[in-house]
Amino acid sequence: MRIAIVGGGAAGFFGALAASSHDPAAQIDLLEATRQPLQKVRISGGGRCNVTHHCFEPRELSKGYPRGAKELLGPFTRFGPRETVEWFEAHGVRLKAENDGRMFPVTDQSSTVVDCLLRAASDAGVHLRLGANVKRVSVSETADPRFEVELTDGSKESYDRVVLATGGNPAGCRVAASLGHTIIPCVPSLFTFNVQDPRLAGLAGISFDNVALTLSDGGSRPLKETGPLLITHWGLSGPAVLKLSAWGARMLAERKYHASLTVNFIPDYTPALAQQELLAFKAANTRKRIVSARLFGIPTRYWTRLVHHAGIADDMLWANLSTKALASLVAELTTARFAVSGKGIFKEEFVTCGGVALGEVDFRTMQSRIVPELYFAGEILDIDGITGGFNFQSAWTTGWLAGQALSQPEY
User: Are 219 and 342 contained in the same domain?
Assistant: First the structure.
């Protein structure tokens, strides 16, 4: 049997490895358009590679997917994070879980994962073909083998089965569309927010351990997320923003990345509770300057900025805090409003929302419901997860299931 797997990323490699493990006699060509396979694996997690998320309950894990949660439930029961950890450890790569659930190799180097996958593919006899840029895949109902794969250099080869695992590359979606599949338009997911606001100017690098964000476009139901926040040169970033961008990916694209963002910097406090805390602090610290006596663990530089924004002079004492200034402080701490005016450029902005319509794929096998013996894996599907290892896990899962299925005699 000749198998072509188009795309040398996480899903493509796992598909090839699963297929070879179930049918060692199969001839498997892993076709990668570039000269460097597994590029996203190399650069993910700041070069550490966030392999998966430490959540072994499929229903809970599926909550990390703005698109594809329902479809992935069954696949996760068959190959989820537990199986991923076991596979990598069986191949010499130990993983560790961090407090937020992200799992990395203990080496903290993505090269550990890349080298493992390359070595496993080589040992399995997978034929990795670099610079193999697929232009067209055609199918015949009578020919055997039934698939013809044409590369951009004009060469053509025949295969019995084909897996499309091209990630967010538009070329992969064009091939899928040419074979009759519906493509949900792709837009970016996991990105930072451009926010031009004097409250943030010059404060790049300041971070908050936990905030509550609310994103609104003035029409649809507001989106909410909690987690760490980071001020950048261009606006706001950090896990809370990235997660919110995933849930709001399509809405933000439709609004040309203009929306209203409300930040509660002290999410354990409502405005009423925050006011009570400030009044109690005022009563106990009447002779202290407001600008130098901060509350709630707010970083010093940001506390100074919000105090000034509330119209409070550097020499004002807590005893002289007016009702108006108090209200302003409460608002800036619990309901600070910022205008999102664009999408930031971020090193992890390589996840897309959109791709092959999920109803056209059998998630028991990852086989097309339109073209028999055509399979899909990874980000080419209309599946995307929040930050934290979710996107790689869906790649490992769908790649593995596709590889298992396409190496079977019949499906």
Answer: yes
